[in-house]
Amino acid sequence: MEFSCEEFKVGKCEGQKLVDGETMPLVLHSPDPNNSSDLDSLVSSLKKNKDWFEQMIIKNSAVLLRGYDVKNAEDFNQIVEAFGWDDIRYVGPAPRTHVYKRIWTANEGPLEEFIYYHHEMVLIKEYPKKVILFCEVPPPKGGETPFVPSFRVTERMLEEFPGAVEDIDGKGLKYTFTALSKNDVSSMRGRGWEDTFGTSDRAEAEKRAKALGMDMEWLPNGGVKTVLGPRALTKVFDGRKGRRMWFNTMVGMHGKEHSSAMMADGTEIPANVVKRCEEIIEEESIQFKWEKGDVLVLDNLALLHGRRPSLPPRRVLVTTCK
């Protein structure tokens, strides 16, 4: 599909890449910055061009709205509502705070830590199709939100480890993860199970976990070990050229202090496969650097994303959509 929408002008940004003929991210500006970069004009343009905008997200995997007068969570929420996509509640280990209506803080874990590349809520039965991020305060240094075209990881892993990839995909993956009962904001994976499941009742938490496809094992310290699996290594989604996405969190959870990843039958994943996969993901990454007021829309079915370490302050807000 060719770009054609008089409401937006295509621009460029640092770190942008051409991947299989597609620009990632597609950068959209106001066609007339002097008269139409205000929030009302943007919201109006988005409402009028919903279908076109959605096609651009699927085509380019990431779309950046830059140069608009978006100041805070209230403004950001107006943009989110303009898209018309249904909300989906975040379930996962990241500590987050509700800010306004559909808007939350992004992972509040220590800024000096690298948040590894992942598809949002990849382990949950119902995951968001879109992740929308807004930069309220760009960091003075670092703090990029890098993202990775997932199909490229699969292609390169199949080139180097065809047997291992098909073996893991055939058996499926099993993950374990431990969580405390209460939130620990000193950790980027410090969200407690009570906050995650919205209850302090163990029986209710188990019921809600089961509905999301998790089993739970209670620990003596009041925490919980969740077991998820089998889960796919790769997935193919409609409308995305039949591309096989690297739709897993094998590298992010394998051999960590609070998590593990193995084949669903209990077989260990070869360490060299995990290590090389980590290198490939980094090699394929697009290092996106924030500017104040940026709104970045990611196709969660097509992209892994993360967070680079940064100096404070940094404030990025987020919402997840069906």
How would you describe this protein?
With 322 residues, the protein is of the alpha+beta class. The chain contains ten helices and 19 strands. The longest helix is centred in the C-terminal third of the chain and has 13 residues, at 271-283. Strands 1-4-5-17-9-19-7-6 form an eight-stranded mixed beta sheet, covered by helices on one side. A four-stranded antiparallel beta sheet has the order 12-13-11-16.
SSE blueprint:
Layout: E1 9-11, E2 17-19, E3 22-24, E4 26-29, H1 33-36, H2 39-48, H3 50-60, E5 62-65, H4 73-83, E6 98-100, E7 103-105, E8 115-118, E9 130-137, E10 147-149, H5 150-160, H6 162-171, E11 173-179, H7 193-197, H8 202-211, E12 214-218, E13 224-231, E14 235-236, E15 244-245, H9 250-253, E16 259-263, H10 271-283, E17 295-299, E18 303-307, E19 315-321
